[in-house]
Amino acid sequence: MNKFKLSLLTLAMAGVSSLVCSAVAQTAEQTPQPANQQISTDSTVADAALDSVEVIQVRGFASSLFRSLDAKRFGDTVSETISADDLGALPDVSMADALTRLPGISAVRTGGQAAEINIRGMSGGFVFSTLNGREQVSTSGKRNIEFDQYPSELINSAAVYKSPKASLIEGGVAGTVELQTASPLRNEKQHTFTVNARRMYNDRADEVPDGTSAGHRFSLSYQGKFLNDTLGFAAGYARLFQPSVATQFVGLAYNGEKDTNDDGINEYISEGFELQHKGGEETRDGYMAALEWTPHDAFTLKADAFLSKFDKEAFARGYRVKFGGPTAALGNPVLNGSSVIGGTFNRTTTSFTRVEIVNDDNRDYDEVRSYGINADWDVSDTVNLSFDVSHSSAKSNFRNGLLWALVAQDATAETPLLDTNVSITYQLNNLNLPGVGFNQAAAFSDVDKVMVSKYGIYPYVNEDEVNAVRFDANWLLDMPVVASLEAGVRYSERTYKNDRSVFEYGSDGAFLTTQPPLRLTADMTEVVDFKGDFAAYPSYLSVDLDKALAAWFPQGIPQPVQTWGAGNPDLVEEQLADSGPNTSWTLLESGEVYEDVLAGYVMANLDAELFGIALTGNIGVRVVQTDQSATNLADVNSDPLRGAQNITDDAGLVNTRYAPGVLGEKYTDVLPQLNLNFGLTDNTQIRFAAAKVMSRPPINRLASNTSITISDDGEISGNSSNSPFLRPFEAVQYDLSYEYYLPSGAIAFALFYKDIKSFVNDFTIQQFDFAAAGYDVPLEVIDEDGIPRATFNGAFSTAVNNGEGGYIRGAELAFTKVFDTLPEIWSGLGVQGSYSYTESEVSLVNNLGGASIETSFEGLSQDVFTGTVFWNYRGFDTRVSARYRSPFVSSQVGIDEQITNFDSETVVDMQASYDLNDHFKLLFQVNNLTDEPTKSYFGDKAQTGTIQFFGRQLYLGAVYTF
């Protein structure tokens, strides 16, 4: 085991920490260690301090707060920490819920549950996450992990680093979140076994057809030390089964234009809206294990594993309204500026105005694996070496299944005909539910009128893995300013794969006569009514998909395949016979990305006195070399001389049009970093940090999906929504904070400033050099007259680093206090709160609401407040927590992903527990106590985006520990 040494300042802080906690607990005996040694891994200095100083254990929620304050106080960076006591005593639904109690951190709710976190006004794509100090890949197809994949019951602690240091893995412009699982040899007790069981209930489930109201959570864990505390073992299992329900209105983007008032100027028209019930079931199984061996004090070998499987079944049922664009007849338009927010749409012979009865069923299976082995060796009293090898992988198999139906004149007819007498009236009502009316409303629930127009399955399979090896060294120095020197190197190889396939039957907006009709019958349908706030909306037919598919495909339900043709395996023979259509959609949507990273750092840890003020911290630099590339398909028009190859899909079709290749580049980043901590008094310190930081683009944005065309006159042009040439986001950031540790609490105030250098935007580059970028383009083409013409570079529309950034700046205030001087019954009363103010000159241009407007940076809320009132008395422990964030910009999912403005929200949770004895505890929780909905809008609240209600989640359970 490392004999980590504490500076004189750290020892003084440890003594003050004991005085702070003595008001509410007995003081524990401290064991000082030799001075000046630093940590050689990504664990904070706080971990070393907490190993060496026995932290006072205060019962109840207050104990976790003091552990968190100790970690913050002894840390060498600007950071926030959640202790194991907090996560284990009353576990949050997700790690995102737990992290949002920290200053400057807010959450984006998905399905009513916090899944993505924003740090200091920056969205999840700028947040880097590690598990046990190792990079984690994601099931999302992006960089940021989905925190609901990580059971809080299996996480021992969580830290958020707002300022980096050179030894931390690069990647977080907003910040780095480090999750830690158990280290069994650090467990205070010889053996610990914990069982946690809870039953949950959602109070809105009865409003959703086939909605499940009840769920459960169960976990058990064990930690033990053996062989005279030289061998430690920890294992845990956590299971979550929970229903997800929602009733929602979703407004769609304003993508049409029409002069609605004859003034010669076009107004913007929405694509339509959705009124739906959403529901489903989520099952998560998490596993954790760690084996730690210390044969002697100078050497520790630890192996750990983490596995999480998340299986989600979800449905969306209701109807989708398509206004029909500018070719529809629009009467009595209601305008908000230049956008239509109300009126009556009637179908014309040229418009597609219609109402689709929607019965979508989605299946999402996600799996995350993380393994690692770490060896830590004190070679001598002054030299420490650490070696780490790790593997992290994620796999996501998302199957989007859709069933769309339209109103027919007579669905029982031999050849059903579409009912084209369509009239839709609506009036948006700001962030309240709109008024709507349909002349076909009675038909939505009539099995003799509703006819299926399309059935489809669209799997989306992502695989992402990273293998890494790391070596770190730490030298203690006998010098007046530099206490120790750290250096290290890390090499990683990451591979991301994306595979698409498809099955389609039918058409979006019509009944095909070339295929047998998919008829609905009474035994496979049910009439569904909207309830509660949505009770005024028309009923519709809900379809039992299993019964329907069994009736339509008695020979076996068709499965999706990778196909370059129309996507219908039943037509493969026909396509092979006459070559058929050749869209190449699944071919171009699939591919691989490769990312090899070599990073090295050197860092000096400081311990000095400056003008009578204790100074600690670190200064260092990290150098990162990245070699990134992606598979590419060059359209060579089936020319074998330019590399065209035969590519056969799952259906047996052969594509000869493309030449496969690999595109990419290599670059180097230099990241200097500084952290200074000034101990002004025994209970006051000031921190200053400065650093250059980076975040790589989402891994899926590095894919190559370029489409290149060459005109008759030889001009080469192309477009691509992604690019293997994207560089990282870069920023220079500064932090200044003041911390005052008062008896039984603390006050902290911080200022921060980030100078963002660039963002990824879609941009058109004129006279782009395609050949120099690695694209296969001919030197000449033959025009329609048979005359050869030399090719020349034209425009290329693609994702680029635009070189334009801006600042993000703000302030944070945090306060924690236990009122231990009150009379005995109130001595366990306390408060914890924080307020963050963030502003930015960075803006985004959004035209989903019609006219182009500037919106704030994605994820930025100007005001974020978190507050908790807690009380502990004779085994009874309770707390009420509130999280508020002001309006912000983020994405919502309609037909496609839409960037919208989200309204402010306040989410209130309540948790309580009672210790029956030293081993057995009862607990009760309510999440989303006030049933706070999610509401969004397109730039102006009159242009409604989403109104979504999720319900309250109630938990009742028990914890047994011995």
UniProtKB/TrEMBL annotation:
Residues 469-929 form the TonB-dependent receptor-like beta-barrel domain. GO terms for cellular component: cell outer membrane. Keywords: Cell outer membrane, Membrane, Receptor, Signal, TonB box. The keyword Signal applies. It is found in: Cell outer membrane. Residues 80-175 form the TonB-dependent receptor plug domain. InterPro entries: Beta-barrel_TonB (IPR000531), Beta-barrel_TonB_sf (IPR036942), Plug_dom (IPR012910), Plug_dom_sf (IPR037066), TonB_rcpt_bac (IPR010104). Residues 1-25 form the signal peptide. The keyword Membrane applies. SUPFAM superfamilies: Porins (SSF56935). Belongs to the TonB-dependent receptor family. This is TonB-dependent receptor. It comes from Rheinheimera lutimaris.
